[in-house]
Amino acid sequence: MITLSAQRTVAPAETEPRPRRRRRVIAPEEDLQPPPNPSRRRALSIGFGVLAAPVIGTAAYQSIKAGAGGTDVRSNLTLIAPAAAGGGWDTFQREMQQTMRSNSLVGNVQVVNVPGAGGTIALGNLSQMKEPNNLMVGGTGQIAAQIQFGTASVISDVTPVARVVEEYALITVPASSPYQDLEQLLQGWGDDPSRLAWTGGGSFDQLVMTDLALAAGIDPGETTYIPSDGGGEAIQALLNGTAQATAGGFADMYPQIESGRLRGLGLVAPEPLDGIDIPTLPDLGYDVTLTNWRAMFAPPGVSDDDVAQLEELIAEAVATPEWKDAVKRYSWKEVPLGSEDLVQYVEDETVRIAALFEEIQG
Prior knowledge:
By secondary structure, the protein is an alpha/beta fold. It contains eleven helices and twelve strands.
């Protein structure tokens, strides 16, 4: 099994610039951050998760089948969130559900949560379905998970329907930090990678940190990384001094920057965001643009007509005022991409993330 990272990972209780190198062709929700050498307690936890996964998966699969009713996508639709309630994937599907209900786009639409193994339990369930009226949201986190866990089910087993949005990350430090800009942070980090601790609320955050290290000529294997359970815990780790920097999600971090509790040093995005006075990493000289994208997937083997109907339904949903409001509230970036182009995009992203994991492993 491939571990997520070769970085030195510690529990929260512990507590001349480097040359830039040209970034390789590598780059790109959710809860995968096991340390390289898990403690006995962690090992037991992982073991329990492995045993529980088939039980969770079977129960969720039966729940989806029970609620499916008919198979017409306009009559009865199941939106699958591959994580527990409250996370990014769940939020996306709840907003999609509310949008479809408010605009009477579907007769009945339900959300089913299938947590486990970074979204790959849900992926395995979807890969066994045939009914076209099941739509799972997925993306970067599941690709990372399938590589980490070497899962039998992979994202190429299911049918890409449409990419919808992506969320950017922010390189952030406490407002009291001595690092006033990204160059100062990288200088301090490079001088002693194990001393400057990073934190993050998901596997995507850790991938961004690793990619920045590689772009800045810093060995990610020497870095201290403290996993947090979500953005809120990562923020607390920064504020109480447990960690000194994070590559957290924009929706979590930017309100803390506005309040003056945190300082944003760089936006991990290919271009600036309107109204956001934080430079992008490319503008600062570092080609790091990983995005946490979210796309919809249907079961394998669905017909071209089914895919076309699902694409049309999603297009109608994302054109509504309700969805536009959600995009604004969560600081998402709309990145529409149809099914034909999405097939190649997913293949390219899988190759790029696998290459990044190879870099992490050294």
